[in-house]
Design a protein that fits this description.
Elements: E1 2-5, H1 15-19, E2 24-27, E3 30-33, H2 44-52, E4 58-61
Antiparallel strand pairs: 1-4, 2-3
Cofactor: [3Fe-4S] cluster
GO molecular function: 3 iron, 4 sulfur cluster binding; electron transfer activity; iron ion binding
Keywords: 3Fe-4S, Electron transport, Iron, Iron-sulfur, Metal-binding, Transport
């Protein structure tokens, strides 16, 4: 599983950064996953950030 933020959907609310600052950051005003943290689903607040993203820009992609 891999976390990603769609820059086309994100409008930079920063909600993800506030919920899970060890996984998300802002780059050029938009949400982004911190490099190397793309698989950090074990961080308790990541799922909350995914579900609470007001732009629905964060996804968890299954890697087969």
């Amino acid at each position: 599983m891999r976390i990603s933020v769609d820059p086309e959907q994100c409008y930079g609310s920063g909600d993800c950064v506030h919920r899970a600052p060890s996984v998300f950051t802002q780059v050029d005003g938009l949400g982004a996953v911190i490099p190397g943290r793309e698989r950090a689903l074990d961080v308790p607040r990541v799922r909350e950030a995914v579900e609470g993203c007001p732009a629905a820009a964060i996804t968890v992609v299954r890697e087969d």
